[in-house]
Amino acid sequence: MYYPDLTPYDYGMTEHKDALNVGWLEEGKPFTTGDFPEKAQLLEKLKTWPIENKYRGWHSCEFCDPYERKIDSTGEMGTFIVPDRNGNGEYIAKYNGKVYAAPTLVAHYIAAHNYLPPKEFIEAVINS
Length: 128
Description:
This protein has 128 residues and is of the alpha+beta class. The chain has one domain (20-127). It is built from three helices and seven strands, in the order βαββββββαα. The chain has a three-stranded mixed sheet with strand order 1-7-6, covered by helices on one side. A two-stranded antiparallel ribbon has the order 2-5. A hairpin with a 2-residue loop joins β6 and β7. The protein is globular. The two termini are 27 Å apart.
């Protein structure tokens, strides 16, 4: 599901009607990439950030194969789901009077696909 960064959120959350989208990426749609000094700190914070608005099922990363193929102990090829490539909820960050809504896959997008979220989202997660 694609929403451009910092556009009004209207996916499913009702209590934060003024929230802004961050990290709703989709294959074939452009997104900003790049390194930033706070990357490691942001990823550490997101590891323990509460997940809100959990949904049934999973949304898998569209930029990589959500499955890893491995040979098991019998020599057969098996398929294993890779958990960090699947999301089922949202991170909500509030800072300086603004609210940001990001899918839980945002951490994967940052780490694996070099996604560069808006500076204000980075500040919201690190400082709140």
